[in-house]
Amino acid sequence: METKKMPREMTGAELKSMLKSSIDFKSLGGMKSPELTLPTEKKQWWRDAKIGMFVHWGLYSILGRGEWVRFNEKIPDEEYTRLAEQFTGKKCDMDEWTQLAVDMGAKYMVMVARHHDGFSLWDSPGSYQGFTTANTGAHRDFIKEYTEACRRKNLRVGIYYSNMDWRFPGYFDPKGKPESAQAMKRQAYNQVEELMSRYGKVDILWYDGSWLNHSGSDTTAAWLWEPVALNKMARKYNPELLINPRSGWEGDFYCDEGSHEISGKIIPVPWEKDMCLCSGTSWGWMADDPVSDLDWLIRMLADVITRDGNLLLNVAPDGQGAIPEKVKTRVRELGSWVRENAESIYGTRGGPVEPVDKVYGTTFRDNRIYLHIQDRNAFAGLTVPLTEYTVTGCTYRGQKVDYTQDAQGLRVRLPEGIKGEPDTIIRLETGRPVQIAEDAEIYFTGK
Ligand code: GLC
Fold this sequence. Notes:
Oligomer: single chain
Largest sheet: 8 strands, parallel
Strand content: 15-25%
Bound molecules: alpha-D-glucopyranose
Low-confidence stretches: 1-7
């Protein structure tokens, strides 16, 4: 008799060793709620999209010392609040931002609506002390502008929202100052409701900062936020909303945050790498933040998609809303590579062959497998353990490539004279559609 398999519960060390991966998922072990579970097909567009553009822009951008500046430098409330008069967004053109996302090859965006500093970028009645762009220097509703601009460009709309807010003493001492903590929670519920109900269809709700007093994790603070109730409310307005795992509820996908490189096996769950186009020392604008090397970014993208993930890449406009020229240039360079290699990226899944770190990995779609080769010399000596599918054609940029296949797998003779490519893509025809196992039912509890 067959017994029904229960989802596996795994914790830190076991999980890490199962994944054999450098990937470090944030906010593991969130609350479960069958009512919130989104059917796999509702996540399909997101899995197909592969690339998103993240934008961190807020009052902190004026100072240019990172989005944590208010807290790190203990800036007095009055002084920080005064900055809002300078935040006019005079160079903020949402059509330009969204065009840049299109240029990047992004299919969705996620914009910070309110960060930990409490400053809301929309006309928010629920904002504590009315600390919003509508009431100060800009007199604008940037979330309205942003959501409308996304739709004009056919981009899916994502909104980042930080539950916590440093302005509430109850954040730092939730048990000792419960009224303040409750007021902060009320603000979060009101603001999430505004964001979910006033701006048309929202596709992604990207939480952050659900921890308390900078300790524990998003999941240990669930007693305060009651994330299941919060997210049920959000889904009432947007039934197909994808929600990240950082509200204290387990979420629809996992997040790996930061610029560390990706290695290890294919991850059998929906996941997203979140990182900055620049150095990553800050998500908000800094004047001399160096942009990452183009080849490094391309390899990062390949490492992510060959392990079945998405890449959410952050750009930071300056205090007036202008995106630095060097950032725009790099975004466009990356985007033109993406466009050239689109068929090996969009709508693919990672696999079917496990990647070899820094050498190659695979993506596939229908009857095609794409080899993404980073180290052509190392690859030349390898047999790709592909035995389940008979390769019926092998090409590089439309040109035929020699190969042999036997019981051990596939050997490909790369054409001579390929110069300096960060990711050489070889297309294999497989005669029949490639299939992989469904996403694992794994409940990553982590630590
Ligand atoms: C971290 C940082 C926050 C940033 C976020 C982006 O949680 O605290 O500043 O917005 O990562 O993922």
